Amino acid sequence: MLSCKLRQPFFFICFFSLLIGFNSSVAGQHEKPRFRVVAIAEKDGGVHAPFVAEAKKWLAQLAQEGNFTIDYIENTQPINDAFLAKYQLFLQLNYPPYMWTDTAKESFQKYITEGKGGGWVGLHHASLLGEFDGYAMWPWFSEFMGGIRYKNYIPGFARATVHVEANNHPCMKGLPATFEIEKEEWYTYNKNPRPNVKVLATVDESTYTPDSTIKMGGDHPVIWSNERMKARNIYIFMGHHPDLFKNDAFVKLLRNAIFWGASQEKP
Predict the structure, then answer these.
(1) Are 79 and 102 in contact (CB under 8 A)?
(2) What CATH number labels 33-261?
(3) For the chain, does the N or the C end have fewer beta carbons within 10 angstroms?
(4) In whole angstroms, how large is the CA radius of gyration of the chain?
């Protein structure tokens, strides 16, 4: 048993060690976030539910590592000017360009065209442009995406090779010149967006496995940015299958896009 003389110094050493550790923990918990992200994903997710579930787990880890916050909405009802002003990035995780309220459309359009403090990253479903579920096509969003309209997709999925075209773009930093996507639907459109956007990567239709007749005809952009808009923006076609988060190239691309879109350096 320790004597009183030994116990007292031991007690104070332990007490101050705990106090220092507690203060450090509190300081870490209250560190101001570098930026704020809002992500929109359809309620229940439909066929994209597994992708969204995996994305949320990955994003939670990224937010912790990168010291940013991420909030989720399931429809466009909350979106207005004041709402968007709180966020430095709008992540269209799994939501089509229809079912938007008029107020949301107007506010989002200003957010992108005026570029007042916010960027945009859109995945997969964001280019589902046309008349769906009784909703008319949103003409401005079509122009934002390069003037395209959705035409078709590969319902049975196909593996394919993606070619990086703009390797000097910040979103493509660290990506290999080509990378494989194991399982995707590979949308086609009524026309090529290339004349109206900066193409960052294309899919090589000759590598479709299994092969498909559903093709754009050679030049098939799958990652691009509309540099006519003031807000930083990038569209990434891939975003259907949860296994994408096991794909190093996709993960690096999305990480780059999030920090670039929010005008932040990657940690």
Answers:
(1) no
(2) 3.40.50.880
(3) N
(4) 23
Ranges of H-type helices in the chain: 4-29, 49-66, 81-84, 102-114, 139-144, 248-261
Domain boundaries, the chain: 33-261
> What is the rounded distance in angstroms from the CA atom of residue 179 to the CA atom of residue 266?
22
Helix (H, G, I), strand (E, B) or coil at 232: coil
Cα gap 237→198, rounded to integer Å: 14
| Numbers of helices and strands, H then E, in the chain | 6, 11
- Nearest Cα residue to 69 out of 32, 16, 122: 32
Q: Which amino acid makes up residue 29?
A: Q
Cis peptide before 221 (omega within 30 of 0): no
Closest CA to 241 of 164, 178, 158, 162: 158
pTM here is: 0.87
In a 10 Å sphere around its CB, with 0-12 CB exposed, 13-18 middle and 19+ buried, how is residue 177 labelled?
exposed
